[in-house]
Amino acid sequence: MIEMGLQIIPNMPVQEVIDTICTAEELGYRYCVMADEGFMPDVYVTLGIAARETSTIKLGPVTNGYTRHPAVTANAAATLNEVSGGRALVNLVAGGSMVLRPMAISREAPLTVMRETINILQRLWSGEQVSYEGKRYQLDSAQVMLGAQDIPVWLSVRGPKMLELSGKQAEAVVLMTKSDLGPAIEIVEQGSAQTGNRPTRIYVDRMAYTPEMLDEAAYMYPYTVMDAPARMLHGMGLTDEQIENIRTAFRSGGPAAAAELITPEMIKHHLIAGTPEECSTTLQAMIAEHQLDIFLLNVTSPGLETNTRLMRDVAEIVRSANQI
Question: Long-range contact list for 287-291, CB < 8 A, 24+ apart?
Fold first, then answer.
């Protein structure tokens, strides 16, 4: 049986984010991760408040080692873990264009950044003093003063080396793009075979079961094209010409211009789409084929009433898939 979670892109007021998390808990969602997007509501302030207003839902940032030093992340997550009564997690990403581009940060040596970030988090959460000499980061007798922490590390990754790393070390791997699940899991398992680690399998999707949701999916689709590896893009049925056209449109006119090139067929390769019944049947088949453990609903736009209806609808779709 698959569990439910929420991934929030906080393109909304702080109180609305908190209300969304509280509503998700009431609807039976077990996890909530919030994107650390730099110029949107601060992830740790917001999740800290949400921790005080919830009691069961697990909470964590979707963050990276470019905009936040891993030691800062380790201490912030430890603080969240204490405030929430042990409900914190950290979801690491390699750093995407949505957050790095506005800060003019280049995405250099992403595998090194990810590997060293994981190592620093795990060492600092031992509660002991840590000195560390890496290619990217250094620590000199650093120590998290809140003591030892048991905080899961998730990896939201797409590239082959990152997927293999998740198989080796991560407590969970967050996978995206429906058509890429099989190839991605195969790479994760190559990493698992080296260490015996079996990360929890999480699939994140927005779902699209109305015309309005298809329009939203078209707007977000170009971000995937900007950052995803060739394996994923070709698996989505895109030609090299289509990829270049979408990227060119994005660079010149932003996501709205690129969205004009996105068709419904492209979207159906990317995420779960159709009627609610079709979405449920599709998800059930994906659970069975790929042994998925958690479904994360991607909340990308403001509107508490709309998002509450979305969370309620998707919860019903997921429960129906569990019963098929």
Answer: 287/2, 287/321, 287/322, 289/181, 289/182, 290/181, 290/182, 290/185, 290/201, 290/203, 291/201
Burial class (CB in 10 A: 0-12, 13-18, 19+), 131: exposed
Interval 228-255 mean pLDDT: 93
Q: Is the pTM of the predicted complex or chain greater than 0.70? A: yes
Asked if residue 105 has pLDDT above 90, the reply is: no
Percentage of residues in the chain having pLDDT higher than 70: 100
Residue 85, sorted as left (phi over 0), alpha (psi -120 to 50) or beta, turns out to be left
pLDDT confidence of residue 220: 86
Question: Percentage of residues in the chain with pLDDT exceeding 90?
Answer: 85
Spell out the domains of the chain, with CATH numbers in brackets: 3-209+274-323 (3.20.20.30), 210-270 (no CATH)
- Mean pLDDT calculated for residue range 309-315: 97
Distances (CA, A) of 97 to 58, 136, 200, 222: 27, 20, 26, 11
Q: 121 near 75, Cβ under 8 Å?
A: no
C-alpha separations of 309 from 58, 152, 296, 312 in Å:
21, 30, 16, 5
